[in-house]
Structures are given as C-alpha cells and as structure tokens.
C-alpha cells in the first residue's frame, strides 16, 4: 500500500494544529509519500496565508517553511502532465472540485495506476476525500474522523 498526501494533510506535518499528531504518526508508517509537484506552490501559499491571518507566529512559520523545503526532495513528486490535467478537469466537473484539489486526485489516480498498488489518499478536505473514495482510492482519515 502506498500513500499520496495532498497539501491539507502535509501542512499538518509542519504547522502544529488539530490533526498534526495523527498525520505525523500515520505518515511515519509509510516508506514513501507521494504528492503532486504543485504541492510546493500550494504549501507556500498556505503558509503565507497562515502568517497573514495570524494563525501562526512568524518564527513557527519560518521553521515550517524551512522544514518543508528540507523534506521536499524526499517526497515522490508527481509531475503535472497534460493527461493528468485533462483527467483533473473531468474530476473537477464530475465532483465539483477546486482546481488544485482535482489535480491532487488526478495525480493520485495516475500514481496508483502506474505502481499497480492500492493508494491511500491522505486529505483533510471532506469534498475531496468523498471524491477520492468514489474514484476508488482508500481515504484517510476515514469519514467522520
């Protein structure tokens, strides 16, 4: 079994908030973690927003960004190909997803197909988790968690 983590799951690894301990323990159980290459941009945007909103102090924010960038090479970074973009458009239409959410789901599906292994899709967005489940991925955390 392999793990795909979207940005909503990964941000909890770097910014201490509800669910952070769960994420740290869960991710530690996998030898490899994959995510879309666009996660780098999305993480920068999420952390910058957290700083602007005052949710995280500047010291913790700088540490989170530094830690994420240090760990980035260890993630399996999935490319955003034309085929993945086309699939994402279909997923966005079918499930009413936001653009980056549809890209995450598309990349996870492609990775599952390429590896031939069941993929666990780690995500904290309820709509995206529901779409991933409908599309045949195992989701974490489970609904209601």
Written account of the structure:
There is one protein chain. The protein is 59% helix and 12% strand. Helix 7 (126-134) links the parallel strand 4 (119-122) and strand 5 (138-140). The mean pLDDT is 95. The protein has 145 residues and is of the alpha/beta class. The chain contains seven helices and five strands. A five-stranded parallel sheet has the order 3-2-1-4-5. It has one domain (2-140): Rossmann fold, CATH 3.40.50.1010. It is globular and about 40 Å long. Helix 1 packs across helix 2 (20-28), helix 3 (39-53) packs antiparallel against helix 4 (58-71) and helix 5 packs across helix 6 (99-115). The chain starts with a strand and ends in a 5-residue tail after the last strand.
């Amino acid at each position: 079994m392999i793990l795909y983590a979207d940005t909503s799951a990964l941000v909890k690894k770097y910014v201490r908030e509800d669910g952070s301990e769960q994420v740290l323990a869960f991710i530690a159980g996998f030898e490899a973690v994959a995510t879309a290459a666009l996660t780098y941009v999305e993480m920068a945007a999420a952390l910058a927003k957290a700083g602007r909103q005052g949710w995280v102090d500047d010291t913790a924010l700088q540490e989170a960004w530094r830690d994420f960038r240090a760990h980035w090479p260890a993630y399996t970074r999935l490319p955003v190909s034309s085929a993945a973009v086309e699939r994402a458009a279909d997923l966005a239409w079918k499930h009413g997803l936001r653009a980056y959410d549809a890209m995450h789901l598309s990349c996870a599906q492609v990775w599952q197909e390429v590896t031939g292994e069941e993929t666990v899709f780690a995500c904290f967005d309820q709509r995206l988790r529901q779409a991933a489940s409908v599309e045949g991925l195992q989701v974490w955390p489970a609904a209601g968690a």
